[in-house]
């Protein structure tokens, strides 16, 4: 089956699944939303320049979010914790609690695999791809004190509020591989003082961007979480219009086409961003105003 056929099936599915009301951001556009300091396959080092945007009304630009990490469908997934982020029920946290209560060493070890971890999310501009607009940079909190946040804080202490749109600075992030081959940030330095941008259009779009991490890191459905909490594989059942555990499905249809679509639909439905429009909040743009918004 050609890829184009599959793509048209999926786009049709997307359109139908939400009644075609909300415009969805394409996969390509979705990827533009994320900034990462990590190295790509085959890369041994990289240096990137990122401008952190100021927090709203004097608040910290750094949000803290909690994510579970589980292997699902042979992929390591970061899963939004409904309990610690939103105070809702989280089947993965419940599994962690249940295992801890069991008391055996094995159960305790297993519980650790369910523990949500703290991450930071900060919005900013990827200087190498300014046309991508505002991006989200997510990295893990390291209790060992050698994480990205631990390298960013000295820059703030030394240079002050580097997020200031007029008197702030870009940060220069250098990433290398450690002896295990893992991507590791080796240094974060402050660049010279610079204006966020002198382009009025960009300034307005960036400065008025109201997206939060909740808009870009999608929550999973309760049944999807339940299945993953039971250490099973969620697959989309189009008849029931919900996720079911592959391991519990009675008829094991092995049609490769269906499997492929399910896999992709899984990706689409869990990762698709919802957006009010074209990504730029044009309602906040003022006409005939050459002034920068900061
Ligand atoms: Zn949780």
Summarize the structure.
The chain is 32% helix and 24% strand. The chain is of the alpha+beta class and 294 residues long. The protein folds into 2 domains: 1-31 and 220-272, no CATH class; 33-81 and 116-218, Replication Fork Single-Stranded DNA Binding Protein, CATH 3.90.198.10.
Note down, in words, how this protein is organized.
The protein has 2 domains: 1-31 and 220-272, no CATH class; 33-81 and 116-218, Replication Fork Single-Stranded DNA Binding Protein (Alpha-Beta Complex). With 294 residues, the protein is of the alpha+beta class. The model is unreliable at 18-23 and 269-289 (pLDDT under 50). The protein has 10 helices and 10 strands. The strands form 2 sheets. Strands 1, 2, 3, 4, 5, 6, 7 and 8 form an 8-stranded mixed β-sheet that branches. Strands 9-10 form a two-stranded antiparallel sheet. The chain has helices at 3-17, 27-31, 82-86, 91-102, 105-112, 148-159, 200-207, 213-216, 222-229, 256-271; strands at residues 34-35, 45-52, 62-72, 75-80, 117-126, 134-140, 169-177, 183-193, 234-237, 242-245. The protein is 32% helix and 24% strand. The N and C termini lie far apart (52 Å). α1 packs across α10 (256-271) and α4 (91-102) runs parallel beside α9 (222-229). The chain binds zinc ion. Residues 68, 81, 83-84, 90, 92-93, 116 line the site of zinc ion (ZN).
């Amino acid at each position: 089956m050609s890829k184009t056929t599959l793509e048209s099936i999926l786009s049709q599915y997307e359109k139908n699944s939400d009644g075609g009301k909300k415009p969805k951001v394409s996969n390509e556009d979705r990827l533009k939303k994320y900034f990462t300091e990590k190295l790509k396959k085959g890369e041994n080092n990289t240096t990137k320049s990122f401008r952190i945007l100021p927090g709203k009304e004097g608040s910290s630009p750094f949000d803290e979010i909690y994510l579970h990490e589980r292997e699902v469908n042979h992929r390591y997934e970061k899963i939004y914790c409904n309990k610690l982020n939103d105070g809702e029920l989280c089947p993965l946290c419940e599994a962690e609690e249940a295992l801890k209560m069991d008391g055996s060493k094995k159960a305790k070890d297993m519980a650790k695999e369910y523990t949500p971890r703290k991450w930071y999310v900060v919005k900013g501009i990827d200087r190498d791809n300014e046309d991508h607009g505002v991006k989200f940079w997510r990295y893990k909190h390291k209790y060992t004190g050698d994480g990205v946040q631990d390298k960013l804080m000295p820059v703030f202490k030394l240079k002050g509020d580097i997020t200031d749109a007029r008197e702030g600075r870009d940060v220069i992030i250098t990433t290398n591989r450690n002896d295990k081959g893992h991507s590791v940030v080796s240094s974060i330095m402050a660049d010279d003082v610079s204006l966020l941008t002198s382009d009025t259009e960009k300034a307005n779009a960036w400065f008025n961007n109201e997206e939060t991490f909740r808009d870009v890191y999608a929550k999973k459905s309760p049944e999807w979480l339940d299945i993953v909490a039971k250490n099973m594989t969620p697959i989309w059942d189009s008849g029931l219009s919900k996720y079911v555990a592959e391991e519990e499905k009675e008829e094991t249809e092995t049609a490769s086409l269906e499997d492929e679509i399910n896999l992709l639909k899984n990706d689409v439905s869990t990762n698709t961003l919802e957006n009010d429009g074209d990504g730029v909040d044009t309602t906040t743009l003022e006409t005939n105003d050459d002034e920068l918004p900061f």
